[in-house]
Amino acid sequence: MNVIVFASRKGGSGKSTLAAHLAALVHKSTKPCLMIDADPQGSLTLWHKLRGTNEPPIKSAINSVSGIVAAAKRDGIEWVFIDTPPNTSAVVEDAIKNATMVIIPARPGVFDVNAVQDTIQTCRALRKPYAVVINGAPARRDDAESPIVTIAREALAKFRAPVWGGQITNRADLLMALAQGEGAREYSAEGRAAAEISKLWAAIERSVKAIRGSSSASGAMHKQAA
Ligand SMILES: Nc1ncnc2c1ncn2[C@@H]1O[C@H](COP(=O)(O)OP(=O)(O)OP(=O)(O)O)[C@@H](O)[C@H]1O
Ligand SMILES: [Mg+2]
């Protein structure tokens, strides 16, 4: 079983959005997922209510996720997605302790990029693999990324933070899908939002395989926290 934790103390960076879209993409009866909403704001829980199918199932966590994660393993769950609140509270630390890999979403602004450092520190202290994912970025034009994104990448490089080479663009489809309790592909299978979410998932899977030692780390986006 693999546990993907979405963490960043910056509010609105995209933790709940990425958790919902990825869980909707990955969950199948052959690949059972569990979502854990460890944020009292309950964004993921709201999306799940709008979805109305109980697939993938969701559990709420208040102070700790460890018991839920242990039960999920016994139940044969393959992927656990944990959404966390925008702070550095005990439940965030507990989620990161349980992580196979931590995804740190960051919008490409100076305040946003700066705010990832706390979460990176926690991942390093707990020796957990992590990667920053640039979210809410301006669309690429003529196949070139926005200067804002390039500047964000340069700033992140100074923290020696591993950053996914792709981006999740600011797209109305991602919002519209959430409002209907859907993932990007369910909302618009051929859409650009769905293509980006699928690309991000492929990168996460590659990293997890490398973390598990079943493939080489070349092409993996994460950094094994040292
Ligand atoms: N790539 C995107 N395109 C369009 N809207 C987005 C994108 N990412 C996030 N949003 C929207 O921005 C808002 C904040 O995102 P989200 O709630 O996922 O952030 P969060 O990190 O979970 O916030 P919090 O820290 O408050 O839990 C939401 O309304 C969300 O739907
Ligand atoms: Mg959230």
Automatic annotation (TrEMBL):
Domain of life: Bacteria
CobQ/CobB/MinD/ParA nucleotide binding domain: residues covered: 4-181
Classification via CDD domains: ParAB_family
Pfam families: CbiA
SUPFAM superfamilies in the cross-refs: P-loop containing nucleoside triphosphate hydrolases
PANTHER family listed in its UniProt record: COBQ_COBB_MIND_PARA NUCLEOTIDE BINDING DOMAIN-CONTAINING PROTEIN, P-LOOP CONTAINING NUCLEOSIDE TRIPHOSPHATE HYDROLASE
Record protein name field: Chromosome partitioning protein
